[in-house]
Amino acid sequence: MHNGILLTAAGWIRDILTFLFGNELLVNILMTLVGIGAIISVILTSAIVFTYAERKVCAFMQVRIGPNRVGGRFGLLQPVADMLKLMSKEDIIPNGCDRVVWSLSPMLLFVPSALIYSFFPFDDGAILADVNVGLFLLLAISSQAVLPFLMGGYASNSKYAMIGGMRTVAQMLSYEAPMAFSLIGVVMLTGSMKMSAIVEAQATHTWFVLLQPIAFVIYLITATAETNRTPFDLVEDESEIVAGPFTEYSGMRWALFFLAEYANLLSISILTTTLFLGGWHGPVLPGAVWFWLKVLVMIFVFMWFRWTFPRTRIDQMLSFSWKVLLPLALVNMLLTGVGIYLYQSLC
Amino acid sequence: MNDLILSLHRLIDMGMTMAEELGTPEIILAAVFYVFAGISVLGALGVVLGRNIVHSALCLTASFIGIGCLYIFLSADFLGAVQFLVYGGAVAILIVMAIMLTRREDMAHSNPSRSIPHQLAALVVAGMFLLAMAAVALMSPFQTAPADIGDTVTGIADLMLTKYVLPFEIVAVLLLIAMIGAIILAKGVDES
């Protein structure tokens, strides 16, 4: 039934493990661990690639050269240099901070960002948890990423961090609502919240970006806001609040925030691909290749946003979410319903 | 090489048969249950026993999330997701924000004191709760066989939009009223 290259590879690994260990239960447990390991390595690799890509894309947009010293003409070893720098930094713990909450915050932030990867269909059948309420559970888990920002902001005992934490909450909560409502259009067309069913529906009909253009635009805007990237990076607004909730973090603790940010960038690109661009479906090339091609295009689009738009103001941004995006998402829901009704009564 | 692998197979099969005789799947299920139940109960204890009210609020979130995991563990996946979104996402943040915005002094001893009257009150409430739980546990006919639940979303949607449509709508109106009331309280009424 499923025949993607990822699943074939998983089959080979299973064969090898069965040959080595024999017992079925043990092999099943080990295969789950292999799946989790694959997802973690995807996230870590993406962080390495993105640090390099972000510098190069930024340089390209600003007519500069970008990294060009470490590792040859194209500066290919720049991520390694960045990582060494981060690891050799001093771990500074601010005075009067709430130690436990302060050190938990960066770790807890990474958990929901990594957890939602189990709902992404990377290829035909290559999905770790294809549950019935997939999309809803995914949104619910990613909404848990708000509290760690607030924890970090509160525990740092610094006014910039505190204001940054408050801003994060205001921003992420107000952009979660239009995001969820825009995705309802996709769920209405599919008739299911199962991720594999959403991909299948786009294979039998057409890409949802054509059927749901309003939802697509709303999703792009809200996703940029949810990941706190420019033009919505008010959370870490250098000219106003230093670095927001991250102000008092240094070294590897700060790197964890950074890792979570890139994990989020990858996950919104994957989600856009899955929900609007047909997922892993495509002609000639294997599914996994199509999937990553689409994801890379979406990542470039999000980086393009970052380096071309100026930063918005917090009050403008919040009123834009509540007064423009949310009503638009509701109208889109109504239009989708009417459209489905007309389609069903005509055909 | 082949001998080595064969002996490895035999060893693992022996271990696994022993584990199956001990009832491995049940043990794994029980372990998962106790981990999440532990998170919920310890979180709830943290709420009551913590000295710092912000820590109490964060423990409450941990408790909410533990309960959400239990729902998913019991195949109520939709309910679990709602628990994450509403309690873990919205209610917890509301509580933490309210605490941070209203309190100005040091947070270290911000929870109510543990004086004798407080402890007595806690004892009485805990006793009443235990009594109620014991009554429920003794009176309810527990179904121990695994029930085939299937697609919970469809079931909930059917019930909400047919049998329970009136309560559902009333709750929606109630929430709207609460929201408008909150806005009026916050912004004030234009008297003219």
Question: What's the arrangement of secondary structure elements?
Answer:
The complex is a heterodimer of chains A (347) and B (192).
Chain A: H1 5-21, H2 24-61, H3 78-88, H4 99-115, H5 134-142, H6 146-155, H7 159-190, H8 195-204, H9 208-211, H10 213-226, H11 238-241, H12 251-276, H13 287-308, H14 314-346
Helix pairs in contact in A: 1-2, 2-3, 2-12, 2-13, 3-12, 4-6, 4-12, 6-7, 7-8, 7-10, 7-14, 10-12, 10-14, 12-13
Chain B: H1 2-21, H2 24-49, H3 53-73, H4 77-102, H5 116-139, H6 152-161, H7 165-187
Protein model, in words:
- The complex is a heterodimer of chains A (347) and B (192).
- Chain A contains 14 helices and no strands.
- Chain A has helices at residues 5-21, 24-61, 78-88, 99-115, 134-142, 146-155, 159-190, 195-204, 208-211, 213-226, 238-241, 251-276, 287-308, 314-346.
- In chain A, α2 (24-61) packs across α3 (78-88), α2 (24-61) crosses α12 (251-276) and α3 (78-88) packs across α12.
- Chain B has 192 residues and is mainly α.
- Chain B folds into two domains: 1-130, NADH-ubiquinone/plastoquinone oxidoreductase chain 6, subunit NuoJ (Four Helix Bundle (Hemerythrin (Met), subunit A), Up-down Bundle); 150-192.
- Chain B has helices at residues 2-21, 24-49, 53-73, 77-102, 116-139, 152-161, 165-187.
- In chain B, 15% of the residues are buried.
- The model of chain B has no long low-confidence stretch (mean pLDDT 81).
User: How are helices and strands ordered from N to C of chain A?
Assistant: HHHHHHHHHHHHHH
Total strands of chain B: 0
Helix content of chain B: over 70%
Low-confidence blocks of residues of chain B: none
Tags for this entry?
heterodimer; A: 347 residues; mainly alpha; 71% helix; globular; B: 192 residues; Four Helix Bundle (Hemerythrin (Met), subunit A); 2 domains; 0% strand; extended
